[in-house]
Specification:
The chain has about 140 residues and is α+β, with helices and mostly antiparallel strands. About 50% of the residues lie in helices and about 15% in strands.
Length: about 140
């Protein structure tokens, strides 16, 4: 029987059988949102996961079902400008522009800028909200014509 393989440094390779199981689970859920996940320990102790963890695991399962590669990792509190750029989906010069215009406040490490993860995530959320609002505005223009 095949199984997912745990490699060094926490990397997990997902085999075809596990991907198929995830795919079936995602199809069974359909358009519904997973509201609750429970697990039982070997000693019989039942634990219900908080909603935020349910959302995280449902997202992981959906990505596994799609196949391809996926990365789940922890991040340090202070990011380099390159790491912040990757998280924001922009170039490093754009991150430097966000620092210059005050959207991001750097912490200096010698002559290098570092950025708090929480600040980068906040900017990312703001940018996603603005992008979503712009799409909604465009869609409403199309409905009005």
């Amino acid at each position: 029987m095949a199984s997912s393989t745990l490699l060094t440094r926490g990397t997990v390779l997902v085999d075809e059988e596990t991907q198929a199981l995830a795919n079936k689970a995602v199809q069974d859920v359909g358009d519904d949102k997973i509201a609750r996940l429970m697990f039982t320990t070997e000693s019989g102790h039942e634990v219900e996961l908080p909603a935020r963890l349910v959302e995280l695991l449902a997202g992981v399962m959906s990505r596994v079902a799609l196949g391809g590669s996926m990365s789940v990792q922890t991040m340090p509190d202070l990011l380099t400008t390159s790491a912040a750029a990757e998280l924001l989906g922009v170039s490093r010069p754009t991150v430097m522009k966000l620092i210059r215009d005050g959207s991001l406040t750097p912490v200096m490490a010698g002559s290098h800028h570092r950025l708090h993860l929480r600040d980068v995530i906040a900017v990312r959320s703001e940018r996603e909200d603005a992008r979503r609002d712009a799409v909604d505005a465009l869609l409403s223009l199309g409905k009005n014509q």
